[in-house]
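In this notebook, the sequence line spells out the residues, with the fold written below as integer tokens. This is how one looks.
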Amino acid sequence: MAGAHVIERDLRLLDRLRDLQSSLIQDVGWLVESQCDGAPRADGLRDLQSSLIQDVGWLVESQCDGAPRADGLRDLGERLADLSTVLLARADELDAAALAKLPPDRWIPAADTAPREPGLAHCVGERPLRCGLVYLALCGAACFPLYGKDPARRIDRHTRCGQCLYWST
């Protein structure tokens, strides 16, 4: 019975590797095309995409006794861990760059707010999601940092969004 369990586990692993292979084609391709602030890291990602896809394909095809090869699994695992570290560090850099342009409390007006009319203020959270010039609030509203870092606290005349208040606490 233990042998059947091991074979079943290896088959699940191979299925996950095939899924990884197809998602690498889409996800890394998307990262290459969607550069934020003109970040010059696309060439490295393109190289990584092609090499990882080939490595996963090789690993799926080169089985030893019906199981994936341990050396291939270890190598791929180490490369994916390194990639994860690099991607998370880059995401932190981009978050810090976005937060540097916002007020310290991260509350900014809705994008449709007129400069002289106070509308709703929204919170963009600790990891702001930016789409062009617009930030997405915790509630999903499109926001624009109309006041920049807002040292005069002009945002205080805006009503705070209830959903953002709930999600920011």
